[in-house]
Amino acid sequence: MTKPVCSVSLDLDNQWSYMKTHGDRGWESFPSYLDLVVPRFLKILDDFGWKITVFIVGQDAALNKNREALKMIADAGHEIGNHSFNHEPWLHLYSKKEIEDEIGRAEEAIGGATEKRPLGFRGPGYSLSRDVLEILVERKYKYDASVLPTYIGPLARAYYFLNVKLSVDDKTQRKQLFGGFRDGLKPVKPYLWELSNQRLLEIPVTTMPVLKLPFHFSYLLYLSTFSVGLASIYFKTALALCRMAKVEPSLLLHPLDFLGGDDVPELAFFPAMKCPQSEKSKWIARALKTVSSSHAITSLGRHADLILKRSSLRVVRPTEPPEHAPEVKSDV
Ligand SMILES: [Zn+2]
Fold first, then answer.
1. Cα(82)–Cα(149) distance, rounded to whole angstroms?
2. Per-state percent for the chain, helix, strand, coil, to nearest 5
3. What is the mean pLDDT of each run of 10 residues along the chain (332 residues)?
């Protein structure tokens, strides 16, 4: 029997972007861990024979100090995606003109560093608006992958902002970080956004069918800090539910999945960053092995090609609620 497809992506968020969102001083000099983490995750992906999608932040690609690391990713044969230029999770508050600049500038910088033109987009912190989708269509993108259909975004946001020193304005800007409760109503399976002139494929980051609980690797690592056994059962249950619901998963990695508190002490505020790197690496290798044994791993771009070849995709119309986030009319 052939294995079901599973796409994997990695959001290459850098040290400065976490510090910026968290309101920490010092991000303006763009501190970077790319030289450390890129060779580390490329080696692991190569050991498993995976070709995935890496979403790159334009600001990183624009800096000479990061170019070598970013070129290594493209040279290793991974798909390169656009993860915005400034990595501001309040992208949905931008005007259409600002979004166009943001996405275009990122494309240019990423192209300069990797010699690849991204055809997939993921908004920072899962932020998305109808204008973002319209601009992706205008710029001939193949897919968007900015949706995390879960009810627990507000909880994740509350956790993230524990002990931060942000002004009221800063908090208002970040009030949609990780999405709102209504994101849980969005479908888990890929669908088409109905836009002004055209449709655009959405490949959501997969959450557990029905329960809509996240199971991206950073979340699993956070669970593993309570119980390694529990995190492993949770992951296997999520994959089994996907099989039952005929969902081809699209899984998400982050650089911090490959870095320990001993690598980047500045990010100790992050869940699972109290773990040393050696323990995290062991857990991640086990999780990758689990999904490798049951699924055929591919990039989001290749997954998009396979999905678009099939008919019967659901069509969803983005609407504009007060906070300008796209919304769907009904549940799957
Ligand atoms: Zn990001």
1. 20
2. 45, 10, 40
3. 92 94 89 97 97 98 97 98 95 94 98 98 93 96 95 67 64 64 82 94 94 90 90 95 95 95 84 83 92 97 95 83 45 36
The answer to whether residues 191 and 134 touch, using CB atoms and an 8 Å cutoff, is no
Give me the sign of the Cα torsion angle 76, 82, 85, 88. negative
Q: How far is the CA of 124 from the centre of ligand 1 (A)?
A: 4
User: How close is the Cα of 18 to the center of ligand 1, in Å?
Assistant: 8
User: How far away, in angstroms, is 239 Cα from ligand 1 center?
Assistant: 24
Distance 261 CA to ligand 1 centre (A): 19
Residue 193: what are its φ and ψ, rounded to 5°? -80, 130
